[in-house]
Specification:
Number of domains: 1
CATH architecture: 3-Layer(aba) Sandwich
Bound molecules: coenzyme A
Distance between the termini: 33 Å
CATH class: Alpha Beta
Helix content: 25-40%
Radius of gyration: 16 Å
Order of helices and strands: HEEHHHEEEHEHEE
CATH superfamily: Gcn5-related N-acetyltransferase (GNAT)
Length: 195
């Protein structure tokens, strides 16, 4: 059903420019910069993420990651992006529109991470603001969901300030840092006003 399937990208996604950031699909050539940033951000990120596999930062694991990203994108299952600072092209973080549900849902789950040296400088606010027109326009989604642990103040503020509304609470919703953790549930709908 063409209307519900929306857009599929068999090739590389076009980059999306925001005010201070540029979003583009991850590429193999990003490995050195990505692994260095993730290594430098390990202590900052691991309390809020699924447990990192032991080989996560290796080139071989990154190759598998890139292959999976490409398959997911081709299958309209997920759209992963790396976030680059527009002024100098430095990789600062990443975000993914994952778990795309078509049919009568037309929904996705938003996930994100910011490299520790770049946190608190407005880059994720810019990145989420940039990806939403792609989600609601190009992908024709109706709903973008996000979830965060109640103590994650940065994530909560980010969602509130990018127009997401808090909708609920899910017990032991995701296994984060090795523990099934309760999450606050947020969503932004296509017709919600921009903040
Ligand atoms: C959540 C995260 C992606 C936000 O990215 P960011 O680039 O730092 O976000 P921004 O700079 O755009 O700031 C977003 C809001 O969070 C606030 N914020 C940033 N760091 C904060 C902190 N440590 N404590 C409280 N608020 C914080 C900012 O002030 C801003 O709110 P404001 O608009 O009221 O000023 C980033 O902090 C991060 O990667 N955290 C660790 C991993 C994580 O939490 N992942 C998400 C799991 S749901």
């Amino acid at each position: 059903m063409a209307f519900f399937r929306s857009v599929g990208f068999s090739e590389q996604l076009p980059a999306i420019a925001g005010e201070t950031v540029m979003l583009r699909a991850p590429q193999m050539a990003d490995h050195a910069e990505w692994s260095a940033l993730r290594a430098a951000s390990r202590d900052f990120l691991t309390p809020w993420e699924p447990t990192w596999p032991a080989d996560d930062l290796t080139r071989a694991a990154f190759r598998r990651r890139i292959r999976r990203y490409a398959e997911d994108q081709r299958g309209d299952l997920a759209y992963p992006f790396f976030i680059f600072r527009k002024s100098d092209g430095v990789l600062v973080g990443g975000l993914t529109l994952a778990n795309i549900r078509r049919g009568c849902a037309q929904a996705a789950s938003l996930g994100y991470w910011m490299g520790a040296p770049y946190a608190g400088q407005g880059y994720m606010t810019a990145a989420v603001t940039t990806v939403l027109p792609f989600a609601f326009g190009t992908l024709r989604l109706h709903r973008v969901e996000a979830a965060c642990i109640p103590g994650n103040d940065a994530s909560i503020r980010l969602l509130e300030h990018t127009g997401f509304q808090r909708e609920g609470f899910a017990r032991q919703y995701l296994c984060i840092n090795g523990v099934w953790q309760d999450h606050l549930l947020f969503a932004r709908l296509r017709d919600d006003p921009s903040p």
